Structures are given as C-alpha cells and as structure tokens.
Amino acid sequence: MIIDIHRHVWSSSERHPSLREAYRKSPAMSTRLDIAGDLPVIPDWEERGREIIADMNEAGVDLSVLLLADYALRLGDSVFSVEGENRVQIELVRRYKDRLLPFFGIDPRRPNAAELFEKAITEWGVRGLKLHPTVGYYPYDEVCHPLYELCVHHGIPVIFHSGPMPGLLYSRFTAPLNFADVAADFPNL
Q1: For residue range 72-116, what is the model confidence (pLDDT) as tens digits?
Q2: Distance from CA of residue 153 to its chain's centroid?
Q3: Parallel, antiparallel, or unpaired: how do β-strands 104-105 and 100-102 relate?
Q4: Above pLDDT 70, what percent of the chain?
Q5: How would DSSP label each residue in 133-183?
Q6: How far is CA 72 from the centre of its chain?
Q7: Residue 24 has pLDDT above 80, yes or no
Q8: pTM
C-alpha cells in the first residue's frame, strides 16, 4: 500500500490572498509557485476532491492524509474559516472514505483551539493533528499543551511542519531542536 502522508486540499497561496500578493512581488517565488490567474470567490471543494483522487490514481497512491495548516493569525483570514476548512476535509473524507484520512489543523493560540479539536475528534472522526509553528509559536510553548493532552488521551498523533518556509512565515520556530521538549514533556505522544 502506498500512503501519501502529506496532502493539502489547497496550497497556502490559494488560501491566503496576502501570501499570493507577496509571491507575485517576488521573482523567485513567482517562478516557483503557480499563482497565475485569480481564484474563484468560492473554491469548488468537490471539484478539488475529484482532482485529488485523480492525482492519487495517476501516481498509484492508495491513501492520502489530508493536512491543514492554519496560517490565519499570521497571514490574515483564509478563504474559509479554520473550522470551515477542516469541515471541507471531513466532507471529502466522507465521499472518499477508503482513500483519504483527515488530520485537524489549527493554530493553538486560537482561543477555542482545544474545544474545536476535541469536537473534531469526537464528532468528526479526525485521526491526527497538524501544527505549523511557522506562524509564530514554538512547538514547546504551553499554549500547545491542551492539544497534546487531547492527542495523548485519544491516542492520535501530531505532525509538525519542520524546516524552512518561504515568504511571510517564520522558519526559526521549526528547527528540529524545538521539538525535543515536546517529546520530553509528552513521552506518550
């Protein structure tokens, strides 16, 4: 079985107008990323789901893990709210339950992060957590602890972005050493 552990429904530049504008102004980034044309006001998530499955079929991928990076507190609002975009992933998984696996993505600094994550686990059936510290927090920050505790309690994993990130995001938060305290403080995570 071939599993793609890192699949996004939309790219960050598709979701965040501020990032698209920054990439358009940067010659290096505009050649690296496909940012031609404007996005529709309301993206067609059903069409994107069909595209994802077609891509998987062409590549011989049996299962893809859907990950969401919550950039809104750094880059401004996305096309969807964080709850809405996570719900889009859940709807895609319902349609393609044998092909897609949902992970929940949220910035732990959101006031309702733990409550939304618990709802996603218990009501929506998410199978893991995606954190993207490049928006301005360290993975060992105590604001993350309620999410880690939920992961441990429910026996589900967390995946982090690590390493450099272009554009308006901060790579310093994702150096590998920043994850060591998480492993020490949450040995069952």
Answers
A1: 888 877 778 889 899 999 999 999 999 999 999 999 999 999 999
A2: 21
A3: unpaired
A4: 83
A5: GGGT--TTSGGGHHHHHHHHHHT--EEE--S---TTS-GGGG-GGGGHHHH
A6: 11
A7: no
A8: 0.88
The label of the residue with tokens 């504008």 reads 21
Under DSSP, the state recorded for 123 is I
Q: What HEC string does 26-43 produce?
A: CHHHHHHCCCCCCCCCCC
pLDDT at 37 over 60: no
Encoded tokens for 81: 């709210």
Whether pLDDT at 3 is above 70: yes
Contacts 24+ apart (CB under 8 A), 90-98: 90/120, 90/124, 90/125, 90/126, 91/45, 92/9, 92/45, 92/48, 92/49, 92/52, 92/66, 93/66, 93/125, 95/46, 95/49, 96/49, 96/52, 96/53, 98/63
How deeply is 189 buried, as exposed, middle or buried, from its count of CB atoms within 10 A (0-12, 13-18, 19+)?
middle
Q: Find all residues with CB under 8 Å of 119, minimum gap 6, and list them.
A: none
